[in-house]
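ok so for the tutorial part 2 we go from a plain amino acid sequence to predicted structure tokens. step 1 is just haveing the sequence, like this:
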Amino acid sequence: MAKETDQQAQVVSFDSESLILVDANDREIGHKSKAECHDGQGILHRAFSLFIFNSEGKLLLQQRSKTKRLWPGYWANTCCSHPRAGESMELATSRRLLEELGMQCDLRFLFKFEYQATFGDLGSEHELCWVYVGQTDQPVAANPNEIEAWRFVSPDELTAEIEQHPEKFTPWLKLEWQRLRDDFADQLP
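step 2 — the prediction. this is what the tokens look like for a chain of 189 residues:
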């Protein structure tokens, strides 16, 4: 399990950043701060999840920083975040992959879906999430402000781990991985 690398401990996520509020059809309806979007039961906002594989077909997972408000220390997909107000999804996904992992790669959109998950009394995710896949063998330079640890796993290993220890994984990873395996297995790198 890899820990912090030589990536600068750059702060790249702020409670005050303005996120894009959407309706169930993903139409933009306004903006609110990241903190407000995650308060209570959450306010529906646009988000994305990236699944990056290496040339051996292994998926890069990250363990979320223990300083995260929601699901600290849980294992998640390679990268997940939000486009900011006025930012395209293409720019947001590239920006965040570079900020969190020091990587760049081509991304392919597969699907989007809405979910809501509450983390005790600390807040909730309520997102219209766009899911992308990519492939690269670039070295990982994890930002320690965002990522506690990272590792590569085979698809079968991840499926087995989720079945055996679902409590270690974020709710969105479990939902997205099931859909990727069920509906998009032939499109994974």
